[in-house]
Amino acid sequence: MKRNFILIALLVLFYSVKAQPSADTNIPLSRLYFHEALDAAQHKLLAMDGKADSLFTVTPNNGLNNELTITITDGVDKLSAGIESDSLLDNNGKIKFLRGLTELLNGYMFGCRMDSVKYATLPDILDAYKECMPLEREGESIENNIYKYPYETGNLLLHTIAFSQNTGFERSYNMVLLKYCDKYRNKALPLLSQNPLLPFTDSLVAQIAKRDPESLYTYAAASNLLASKIRNNPDSLVRIISRMAQLKSGRQLFPFLDNLYRGKLSFENVSAVMDDDVKYYKLLVQTAIDYADMVRRRDTPMAAQSLRIKIQKKAADPFINTINGLHDVNDERVRFKILEPFTPEELYYMAVEGEEIIYTSSYVKGVYPRIWQRMKSPKSDSLLMSVRFDHFKKWIKIASNYNTLDDFLKRMDNNNAQLLMKAFVNNLHNTESLEDAVDVANSYASINDPAVRNLILNQVQWNIQQAVQTNNEKRKDIYSILNTLFLSMDSSNNINVSEVLGIPPVYFMPNKSLQDASGKIIVQQFFYGDKDGKSVFSSFLNSFSKANWKITNSEEWVTVSSTKGVPVIIYANKPLDESKSLDAKAQSDLNDYLFNKDISPTIVIHRGHSYWLPSTIDQLASSAKVVLLGSCGAYQNLDKILKICPAAQIVASKQTGSGLVNGPMISLILESVRQGKDLNWPQLWASLSKTLAKNELFDDYVPPHKNLGALFIMAYKKLQEKNAIEAGQVKK
């Protein structure tokens, strides 16, 4: 094999040195320039791999590299020699094909650099050029050839002077544009906007209406020639979209597109409820159930994503925002009065689509219990059937995060609960993101029923077997990690998660790892200026012993420094008036101070309600190695935090965060690091379990070694890095 490679290399060297026909071909001066330009294009192409040699080594495949090298050298030389010796071509004809060949190579080179052309296509592109040359020479159309070539090949050919005057150029060009629109579907409308009178405009617009109706709506609302073509299109779906686009209320109508098209709804039906928040939301939910039913029948509803976005917006405003805003009102009849008109199904969608903004208490005390109160027979499987199992995995995730999953599963027959959880666990490898897999990991950690846990574990292990049998690496990776994590939850299995999964330690955080170059441990705490924030801040300051700590005040923050043991410095913004955004300003100024002084926190603590948490995450230092989230529902935000701090150890509450838990926990952690101790999470948790035995909310806090969702994300990314290294795709 090595000998063959050397032989090929020598042949390539011979041809590349030769580069053009020798002097005995008597190239006239009138064409010499075009041969030299072609020769320059060949050398420029060979240099694309960054090496000034005669080999084209741009891919990991040596065989392909050799083929491409010979094509660029021998193949192009033979073709140019054939052009030069063709007695049927006059001087201008030879110049046209030589110049066209140079343009072809330059176009290929540009396409490769822009990742729009694959390196491996060069031999086929050159063959296509050779096939079309005789047709052009004889004055015949190249249309049939262009029809059979891929878009990239046809596009390169038509962008050379060689075929610019071909009798079939216009039809060929239109054909290439159509192939472009089919290959790059998101660019079809911009192209039609520039070329609205193409012969296929009407038929293509009709296709786009089905696959991307929202984009078509946008273009139909414009005032240009394409918009006019769209409005005059005979297709019934296009006409409905065009009608919407001409109305001020068009965006309100758009989520109902599929039902409008199928005749289940009329424009008048939607317009009649548009100004009533309750009725409009109800119609949105009913439409979502209709669409879910279509999906169940393996049909694809149009505008489904637009419908979901509209439900999210309408659920948020006014309904979720109202009950969130009344979180300080103890009378639930007052706080949740706005939920009175809604059915169980409508409340289900409010929870699912409002996941990102709903407060813990709004879900636990408001939406969730009212679902069952509104049902004659409060069976959870009946609820899922009534919504056609739409977003059921997200529902299970939310229920597990808020510790209502056990209650939910107990509201259905055991056999149905088993089938549901199997469906929850299956097909995690068939989605582009890891969201479903993380949801399964997090949910497992929240389930207390041993039978349900065993069911999930068995289903995970069944998926591993299926992955091995089908040689599905992604499936095997996902389920193998889940299997390790779930087995590690049982201490009798003696599984060291860090060791098995190759991720940083999760059972402890070494004290040394928290220290900066000068041996200091930097802590940043975020406080907010509402009534609770001010109270918590006062308790925070009073928790420090004067024997071991010193407090220094500045205008916008305090600095708490240890006076004994390991130097620990805590920076905490003051909870200044949030109504004037003074707390936000204090945080911003403190962040600037830390940045300018090159001070990097390794412990970050959030002190505040869940609605303040996004602000803390936005300001989270990437240097953080331990993150404490003392807020309600903070467990939901693991993925966001790990994108900023990929190896952070996270302590969070799945449900109602409590100052009575946060205070003792933070004090124990800070004292431990001051004393030079590692943060041994199992030991710390055992100690806190005794201290907080009477506080039932402590059970909802999750330590890093039990934070399965975070561990899954870390482990999967680590495994992909390892696989890439083994495959030679990245360097160690």
Automatic annotation (TrEMBL):
Source superkingdom: Bacteria
Signal sequence residues: 1-19
UniProtKB keywords: Signal
Entry keyword annotation includes Signal: yes
Keyword Signal annotated: yes
Protein name according to UniProt: CHAT domain-containing protein
Organism: Panacibacter ginsenosidivorans
